[in-house]
Design brief:
The complex is a heterodimer of chains A (668) and B (136). Chain A has 668 residues and is an alpha+beta fold. Chain A is built from eight helices and 33 strands. Chain B is 26% helix and 32% strand.
Chain lengths: 668, 136
């Protein structure tokens, strides 16, 4: 007798299996006829079996990290690997708060209240940055001004919840009923009973290492529905709570990474600074309070960790075993320590040229913002210390961004499709966005393959007869103020670039402010036109009037590598752009590529195509200098040549009868 | 039942009864046999609505939808066609002889008669009649 095959997952297989079973019985013979009552019963049995096998299959899937799809189960599997899924984290800011006008008040102490200190607006909503503890400051006799230095502020709102310990309830849990908490912000204090005026502050621990039976510690775990539970000791690992004790849990509910990158100018002071005068609490007027962000912008905020991220990081974190030895150990630990990390690349100093032994270089690209703030870098390095082995010194570097500007050009036959140019435009945009999000591209050392994109555009519709992409690449460089001293910068386009364009510059940067120069300046490598054989590999500083001021560096057009030395009035970011000769690009391990979609040209009549449409870019437009000034300490130039500088004899703007070389043989 | 008709030999058919009553002698479930089993299958096929059976979206008829349309000769013809199609495709044990549908507009119903031979049994014409009426 054939037994039913319960492993089948298809309805028809299950039904056939049940039929085969009934065939062995002589009582019924009508199982083969769809209209029979028995056939209906067989259908119901098969349907029931199908759902049972499906449920068993799904349930067994949920037992494994690789195949689970429900967040609760994935988090639970990750817990077994010692990995705690990342929660929302608050954006942070460190500020100095200056209070003046104190001499007339005749006081010896002022205090900054805990709670909201700064407020800012984001997408029409108000957000606050709070101080978690009150800060008292002595006012020296006769002082008119005091400063609260390095006050740590966290974005969000502070909440607390209390539980009374009931040891008779063995299922009592200490759950924080909020999905938006920063789990790192949880503070726990325990009182003996409701009438007690003193409490003991418990310490948050991530591992049981060095936790004794009497230590007042707690652990935090994500539980069902993305909520968090505070877990206490059992008198073996940490102190056990006693009946009647009051547990007070304080936490921050936050908006996460949305409030990263907020600059000082966007904040308003909303805090309270009090003093006591004649036994009465008085407020310092807001007009006497000033604040200053110690970092350029807020940083450190992030969203809760995604399912894909938990699946990726948990096994790697387990493999790192809580110590940083290999580069992948560092990568998984950094991902854990800095929730806003999008990409992390770690290289050992010994692999560099020249080698730097004893160092590990970490490059972090944040999810929000261009770079990690200095305060966050310090925090990450401090947190990393407990994992680092031996005398290794980790160093965090800023990532380099490489922008690829794509301008697709597509010709299609309107008689072969019902799609409109707008639909083609959307399809091409979606296609490029998909490519940008692919693992091969969106990574340090990502690869741009133009032939891939072109072939996919060609496959979009049979009516497309021709496609081309004009490419411009820009290296994003952060200039340092560096006390107006010239700093040397190196960069690369990672491919050979065009040296002969029809514009004045074969390579140009956006404008920036340079000390000692009254007008905004940019970097420019001269181009003498497509027909001219003269090539100048010098990088010049050019002002907004077109005057070539001086040579500040050079480029190798074949390799695309360049270096220059300039001073900058501020920490500005400039784009240095060129037209690559080869449209397939492969950036280095410290650089991540980024796509900008420029103009998408869709033409429905092949007769409208001009020869220039089929060629790469033949010129680079002069960037706008709007919003950029010259040295603020100098009067703005009226348009004439700057004193002390000589007009460049090769400036084609100033040469009256320049005739570009037309004979290509002259160049050989 | 072993006989020949149209070159085929019929065999015994056994099906369960949906009233699930108990045979007083054998104490087993009551079974439908031969002609009765086939008659029940014919009714089942005609009265099964399309999409009703699990994973068999094309099995059955849409007879009930005709009950909500104006009663015309077209509806009757369409009903006949549907019944014929479903039986020809899914009930290989019968050979259709005649299908008639009479509308009884006063009672808001159709009276259906299906006449068929059982393949393998030459002499007996089987008749199944049923009434299609709107469920209130």
């Amino acid at each position: 007798m054939e037994l039913p095959t319960v492993s089948a997952l298809e309805f028809n297989q299950l039904r056939a299996s049940i039929k085969n079973y009934i065939k062995t019985k002589s009582e019924f013979t009508d199982y083969d006829f769809d209209g029979s009552n028995l056939s209906m019963l067989v259908d119901i049995l098969a349907y029931n079996t199908l759902y049972t096998t499906y449920n068993v299959n799904m349930a067994s899937n949920e037992l494994n990290l690789d195949t689970a799809v429900l967040r609760d189960n994935i988090v639970s599997q990750a817990k077994k690997l010692g990995y705690t899924a990342g929660s929302f984290t608050s954006a942070k800011a460190t500020v100095d708060i200056t209070v003046d006008g104190l001499s007339s008040l005749n006081i010896d102490k002022i205090s900054l209240k805990s709670g909201a200190v700064l407020s800012t607006k984001f997408e029409k909503k108000n957000y606050t940055f709070i101080s978690r503890e009150p800060i008292n400051l002595s006012v020296p006799a006769g002082s008119d001004e005091v400063v609260f230095r390095d006050v740590d502020l966290f974005e969000g709102t502070s909440f607390n919840i209390s539980y009374t310990v009931d040891t008779s309830n063995e299922h009592q849990r200490f759950i924080i009923p909020n999905n938006f908490i920063d789990s790192e912000s949880i503070k726990v204090s325990v009182k003996d009973d409701a009438t007690s005026s003193s409490s003991i502050r418990y310490t948050k621990k991530n591992t049981i290492v060095n936790v004794s039976q009497s230590d007042t510690v707690f652990f935090v775990e994500e539980i069902q529905d993305q909520q968090y539970e505070v877990i206490f000791g059992d008198d073996v690992i940490g102190r056990k709570l006693q009946n009647g004790e009051i547990v007070n849990i304080e936490y921050i509910s936050t908006a996460g990474g949305a409030l990263n990158n907020v600059k000082e100018s966007a904040f308003t002071f909303v805090g309270g600074i009090d003093y006591i005068s004649s036994g009465v609490i008085q407020k310092i007027p807001l007009s006497n309070i000033n604040f200053q962000l110690n970092t350029e912008f807020t940083d450190g905020g992030s969203e809760f960790e995604s399912i894909a991220s938990i699946k990726y990081r948990a096994p790697r974190y387990y493999a790192s075993q809580g110590r940083a030895v290999t580069t992948s150990d560092y990568e998984s630990l950094i991902m854990q320590l800095y929730g806003n990390a999008d990409l992390v690349k770690v290289v050992g100093g010994e692999t560099l040229n020249p080698p730097e032994y004893g160092k590990v270089f970490i490059t972090i690209k944040p999810k929000v913002g261009e770079v990690v703030s200095n305060s966050e870098k310090s925090r990450i390095l401090t947190d990393l210390k407990s994992f680092v082995v031996g005398s290794i010194t980790p160093e965090i570097r800023d990532p380099k961004r490489y922008t690829i500007n794509l301008n697709p050009f597509v010709v299609y036959d309107q008689n072969k499709t019902r799609k409109t140019p707008t639909e083609f435009n959307k399809l091409i945009t979606d296609l490029i966005v998909d490519f940008e999000n692919s693992d091969a591209f969106k990574n340090f050392g990502g690869v741009y393959s133009q032939s891939n994109i072109l072939s996919e555009i060609q496959n979009l519709d049979d009516s497309i007869t021709f496609s081309n992409i004009k490419v411009k690449t820009c290296v994003v460089t952060r200039l340092e103020k560096n006390n107006n001293i010239e700093t040397k910068y190196n960069g690369s386009f990672f491919t050979s670039v065009e040296s002969k364009l029809d514009s004045h510059c074969a390579v140009t940067s956006t404008f920036f402010c340079s000390p000692g120069i009254a007008n905004p300046v940019r970097l420019c490598i001269k181009s003498f036109g497509a027909g001219n054989c003269v090539i100048d590999e010098n990088i010049y500083l050019v002002d907004d009037k077109g005057n070539f001021l001086r040579s500040v560096g050079s480029i190798d057009f074949e390799t695309g590598e360049f270096s220059f030395s300039v001073a900058s009035c501020d920490d500005a970011t400039i784009n240095i752009c060129a037209v690559p000769t080869t449209p397939n690009l492969d950036v280095d391990g410290e650089t991540y590529p980024d796509i900008e979609i420029g103009d998408i040209v869709i033409i429905d009549n092949p007769l409208d195509v001009t020869p220039t449409d089929l060629e790469p870019f033949t010129e680079l437009p002069v960037p706008s200098s709007d919003g950029v000034t010259g040295d603020p300490n100098l009067p703005s130039d009226d348009g004439s040549t700057i004193d002390g500088e000589i007009d460049d004899p090769n400036n084609i703007d100033t040469i009256d009868n320049l005739t570009p070389e037309q004979d290509p043989n002259r160049c050989s | 039942m072993v006989d020949t008709y149209l070159g085929k030999t019929s065999r015994a058919f056994k099906d369960i009864s949906f009233n699930f009553s108990k045979n007083p002698i054998t104490k087993d479930i009551v079974t439908l046999k031969n002609e009765e089993a086939i008659k029940q299958a014919v009714k089942n096929l005609v009265l099964t609505q399309i999409g009703e059976r699990f994973f068999q979206p094309n099995l059955g008829t849409s007879t009930s939808s005709y009950l909500f349309e104006l009663s015309t000769g077209f509806s009757e013809n369409a009903l006949i066609e549907e019944i014929e199609t479903v039986l020809k495709e899914n009930e290989p044990r019968i050979l259709l002889s005649n299908i008639s549908v009479d509308s009884n507009t006063d009672m808001n119903r159709y009276e259906c008669f299906v006449e068929y031979f059982i393949v393998g049994i030459p002499e007996a014409v089987q008749i199944v009649d049923f009434i299609l009426v709107r469920e209130s």
